[in-house]
Amino acid sequence: MTVIIGSTGGDSLGFLLPSAAVLGTTGVGAGAFGAHALKSTLEQQKNGVENWKTAVMYQLIHAVALLALSGLVSSAAAAGGAPGAGAGAGAGNGKNFVQICEKAGKYMTAGVALFSGSIYCLVLDVGNKKIVGPLTPLGGLLMMGGWAMLITIMTRM
Q1: Which run of H or of E encompasses 62?
Q2: pLDDT digits (tens, 9 = 90+) for 36-58
Q3: Contact between 16 and 73 (Cβ < 8 Å)
Q4: Which listed residue, 36, 50, 120, 129, has the most CB atoms within 10 A of its CB?
Q5: pTM reported for the whole predicted model
Q6: Phi/psi at 40 (nearest 5 deg)?
């Protein structure tokens, strides 16, 4: 795949691809760290291992989703419109498509930071639980919002 960096997709790729890389790298690291260095600590917490695995899983799933979004944005930039939108997809549709993908990616990234980050903190007893605890569902809502934005793309194609 050729990555197009330009006015249509450059800003989005400048966010989506690095975000995917950061979430993927730190997700693999958190998974390995939890399976080895933190194993005994996580086992002492009720549901510690399961909660850690959940946080890692959501982080890695969204890293792949961001990677896919960066590919869609690159494809749209190369084609000059939204992928699969047909002959009527001009620059305006493509720009809107890219903006929605970028916004969805930002929601997902913020959601993962809050969702997985808060679970990591809660399992490791870092921070005030009254403050950190409510961040988990807020992060979940942001991730869902990102996915919902992708539904709007599908309904417009």
Answers
A1: helix 48-79
A2: 999 999 999 999 999 999 999 99
A3: yes
A4: 120
A5: 0.85
A6: -70, -35
